[in-house]
Task: structure prediction
Amino acid sequence: MAMFAALVAVLGQLPAIPLAGGVPITLQTLGVMLAGAVLGPWRGAGAIVLLHLLVAAGLPLLAHGSGGLGVFAGPTAGFALGWIPGAFLVGLITQASWPLRLWRTITGTVLGGILVVYACGLPVMAFQLGLSLEQALLLNLAFLPGDVIKAVIAIMLTQPLARAYPAPFTHARRRRTSHGPAR
Result:
């Protein structure tokens, strides 16, 4: 879990693409998607909880080196907090069987890595900025193509990694053991 918490933190420190309104496009959600897909639901969500605990303690691990409790009170707090259930859902769907199925990886990454994160982030942003949900959604449409690209990268990395190095995919491999060989 610590390694994926570190991965998400490092991806937040890479140069971001600035957008109007000051919210940058970073690669951190790619790390969230990979944490869930590789570690499974519980350990993937645990990696993000660990990252948030470190951020809350003041470490500058989010985009632009931000950290501290204040980041969880801003307009983007819902997106960051949405990473926890997002990583959980990515892992739950992706690792539902062993060997991994491509369609499950695609479904889990899109539902958990994009839809759940937006479902958590948009209401908080709308509340913080005094917007309607539709207005908050319109503001965030600029991020959607980047999130789709990140999902594609996560899918392209997860499938070969599971074949080459299956050790971290314990949730899916245990399911195979308890339910018999995958068909």
Observations:
- Residues 102-129 form the longest helix (28 residues).
- The chain has a mean pLDDT of 90.
- The two ends are 30 Å apart (CA to CA).
- The chain is about 70% helix and 0% strand.
